[in-house]
Amino acid sequence: MDFILENKWLFLIAGEIVFWVSILTFLIMRYWFKFKKASVLFFAIFILNDLWIATIGFMDYMETGKFSIYQIIVIIFIIYAFTYGKSDFKKLDAFIQRNVAKIKGEPLPLQEKKPELYGMTYAAKQWKELLWHLAVFIVAHLLIILFIGLADQMADVTSLKTLADLWFSKSVAVPFENTVANNISKVWTLIVGIEILVVISYTIFPKGKKTER
To answer: Is 98 in contact with 109 (CB distance < 8 Å)?
Structure first.
């Protein structure tokens, strides 16, 4: 067990590689070679790989007796798997299936064609997806606060300007007592901020129907 915990980050990286290789192999075996039964083996590897990474996170907690950024990252991966992961897998499945059919000159698979949304209906859909993203974002940050804690400098925050000064300061590590957690939080916050602006733009300037020429 000591060897596993000493190299837990390598196992995490290897787990991500196994994740993508097993998923892509599963889809290629299923649609290119038509080995649907054999492809299930690679899907099982994908499931076992996720369970293995989760087990390492649990072992790390049992060994140290406290939560660490490694365990937080594992938890974020699990949250993703049960939220965005399902829809992303369906999109990848449809993409591989459709392109394999094109390359092999086979009839394109019949797929349910969803009506294209416009105006405030489209904006409402974007807001719904944003709220899901914000929920995952908030839960992940609450877990980091709970298990790692906020940086001492956060006690000095009295306004948004003060927070911004600390946030962009190179000499101060905020908002958490962990450099890796701070880097993840800052990049993730930037992504969420851009997503919010995009969704607001769809609300102010609703998406219109494409005019045929």
So the answer is: yes
Helix (H, G, I), strand (E, B) or coil at 76: helix
In degrees, rounded to 5, the angle at the alpha carbon of residue 80 between the alpha carbons of residues 71 and 32 is 120
Q: What is the 3-state secondary structure (H, E, C) of 139-203?
A: HHHHHHHHHCCECHHHHHCCCHHHHHHHHCCCCCCCCECCHHHHHHHHHHHHHHHHHHHHHHHHH
| pTM (two decimals) | 0.59
- Say how far apart CA 161 and CA 1 lie, in whole Å: 47
Q: Which of 4, 84, 12, 10 is nearest to 49 (CA)?
A: 12
Give the pLDDT confidence of 15-32 residue by residue, as tens digits: 888 888 888 888 888 888
d(CA 132, CA 84) in angstroms, rounded, equals: 9
